[in-house]
Design goal:
The chain is of the alpha+beta class. It has one domain (about 35-285). It is built from three helices and 14 strands.
Length: about 300
């Protein structure tokens, strides 16, 4: 009995060693399995989560549930010009995952299934400040009429040619309306561009209220890349030369989704839009950056 017990333990030890050896071998294989030219499954470890106000509870009052701060470029306006609620563009959450060797994955969550908004032709997107000067470099947008398969169709990346995104005061409203160019230059459109596989989108196969977006990690500086990101849904204004909106549209002309803002309510020129606050990725902000949520601002 003693002998067989010893041999049982030996077998366990050998299996354990084999498992350990295989385990250390399996890890790098995982990265190699990721296709550098087509996105795949979205990793779930180390995901950054950003929450956004939703308005289903105040929709019947024809107003937003707070969260709209024109002066910081935070918009909570998933309503049409008559203040009818558009739940299929009401952002509730955004996730970012950078664990894949080849892809940065973004998941954009809204209140109702995206398909419900097909006739409004909204765009789902992300704005990126890649040199951390509070001025966006890129705006990626994806049309919502799409399947649960990854595709570059309807995916566009715009760049800004005057490096004046945000006018004289980035993020904050300029004193006078700005003539800065906004996002005026197309660098990717449905596979046309320097890299035909740069950016992809799909409706999440597991949740019809989620748009998945994949951007090549190398475009954002690879594993160590530092950038600010924030997501958008855009149905009313889709002229990207009007960004930043609070420099190109006066507050009084933009209107307000909040009845408390008596002189501004209801929505006027700037309707059918939602975004999140600006979120740092790959770094911890050490100086004040406008438009970041309080959690990310340095403590006084
Ligand atoms: Ca929202
Ligand atoms: Ca920038
Ligand atoms: Ca500005």
């Amino acid at each position: 009995m003693k002998y067989s017990k010893f041999s049982f333990l030996s077998i366990v030890a050998i299996i354990t060693l084999l498992t350990l050896a295989l385990g250390s071998f399996i890890h790098p294989v995982y990265a190699a399995e990721s296709d550098p030219n087509k996105p795949g499954d979205i990793p779930t470890r180390y995901t950054q989560t950003v929450h956004d106000q939703t308005d289903e509870k105040t929709a019947s009052e024809k107003q937003a549930n707070g969260g709209d701060v024109f002066g910081l470029g935070w918009y909570e306006r998933p309503f049409d010009k008559d203040m009818t609620y558009m739940p299929y563009i009401d952002l509730s959450k955004a996730l970012m995952n950078r664990e894949d060797a080849n892809w940065v994955y973004l998941q954009i969550f809204v209140v109702n299934p995206i398909e419900e908004g097909a006739s409004a032709k909204p765009l789902f997107g992300v704005e990126l400040d890649t040199d951390l000067d509070n001025r966006g470099e890129y705006l990626l947008t994806a049309t919502t009429s799409r399947s649960t398969e990854w595709s570059t169709e309807g995916v566009v990346i715009l760049n800004n040619s005057d490096n004046m995104m945000g006018g004289l005061k980035p993020v904050l409203p300029d004193t006078n309306l700005s003539d800065s160019k906004g996002y005026d230059k197309e660098i990717f459109n449905a596979g046309t561009g320097d890299d035909p596989n740069l950016a992809w989108a799909r409706i999440s196969p597991s949740d019809p209220k989620v748009m998945d977006i994949a951007i090549k990690s190398s475009f954002l500086g690879g594993a160590k890349g530092k950038f600010i990101w924030f997501v958008w849904t855009l149905a009313g204004v889709q002229d990207m030369s009007k960004l930043e909106f609070n420099d190109h549209i006066l507050r009084v002309d933009a209107g307000s989704p909040l009845k408390g803002e008596k002189d501004l309510y209801p929505l006027k020129a700037l309707w059918g839009v939602d975004n999140t606050s600006r979120i740092p990725s790959g770094f911890v902000p050490t100086g004040m950056m406008p438009g970041l949520p309080q959690d990310f601002q340095p403590k006084p």
